[in-house]
Amino acid sequence: MGEFKQLVFSGVQPTGNLHLGNYLGAIRKFVALQESHDCIYCVVDLHAITAQLVHDDLPGQIRSITAAFIAAGIDPKQHIVFNQSQVPQHAELAWIFNCVARIGWMNRMTQFKDKAGKDRENASLGLLAYPSLMAADILVYRATHVPVGDDQKQHLELTRDIAMKFNMDFMQKIRAAGLGTDILVGDEPVHAYFPMVEPMIEGPAPRVMSLKDGTKKMSKSDPSDLSRINLLDDAETISKKIRKAKTDPDALPSEIEGLKGRPEADNLVGIFAALSDRSKADVLKDFGGQQFSVFKPALVDLAVEVLAPVNGEMRRLMDDPAYIDSVLRDGGARAGARAEKTMKEVRDIIGFVQ
């Protein structure tokens, strides 16, 4: 049995301000992965128009995500950073995957149900079909691993289903073209063109919640800016938001068990732990029995210390849009060359005349 060459792919939508949850849950992990893997990081601007077609400043949002990638430590020369719309092979493969995937598979996607709400008939076709595009984003590079959060695991399972159905439907043609790799899927040998993508979960992912409501995830779409710490917030703004963060009247516990039923306390301790690369238990050893009037200033100092370099570099980069655009063009050209190699082979497998 063979193996596909390991490759990591991940993308971030250019919608709304990037916040602390995006940084701790995704971008900081992207930085760590580039030390051990070949990585492709994409600003998925085609996905940005599925839920909202018209944007006030889509170019600015695309550049902001790119600036965050670079400011956090991603090296666009050693790896690839680009925006999705510069590589049309994503959309081309997505159409083929629309013909591979089944309507029933799409209808089961919980994110579609959540985002479409009760008025499903009025949702865009793009919103229903965007998991096919997500599968294409990954498989047009034949990526083997994707860092994912809980909300994307179902879509990654769909990506595997699409890859498996393509491999099974075209197995004889893949073999006849001299393409593909013999792999085992469970106990079944499959001559596969596309890999069975694996989720990449590097340690426990911090689940960063709203500063206004510890039961809801920190979100770019929350109407209250006080609910999140944006990566472009300055030190004074970070301090204000943490000081105003919702808490309860009790002191911090000395043991993790004491955080149960205290979502806001649990969230702030979790943020401190993630920013300091420590466990919640370690944080509580230092602050157990202390009031939030002691803990919050320490959290402010830590957050500013960690985020200030990223914030400053993001601002510097965003003042130089020509440089950001040059990074995206270079990344787009390198990504496009890889994607076209895949698409040329896919067209041959399907039988399109080229």
Taking all Cα atoms into account, the compactness measure Rg is 22 Å
Structural class: mainly alpha
Helix content: 40-55%
Q: SSE order in H/E notation? A: EHEHHEHHHHEHHEEEHHHHH
Description:
The protein has 14 helices and 7 strands. The chain has helices at 20-33, 45-51, 58-72, 89-100, 103-107, 110-116, 125-139, 153-169, 171-176, 235-244, 263-275, 280-287, 292-318, 321-350; strands spanning 8-12, 39-43, 80-83, 145-147, 181-185, 188-192, 198-200. Strands 1-2-3 form a 3-stranded parallel β-sheet.
Topology:
Layout (H helix, E strand, L loop, with lengths): L7 E5 L7 H14 L5 E5 L1 H7 L6 H15 L7 E4 L5 H12 L2 H5 L2 H7 L8 H15 L5 E3 L5 H17 L1 H6 L4 E5 L2 E5 L5 E3 L34 H10 L18 H13 L4 H8 L4 H27 L2 H30 L4
Parallel strand pairs: 1-2, 2-3, 4-7
Antiparallel strand pairs: 5-6
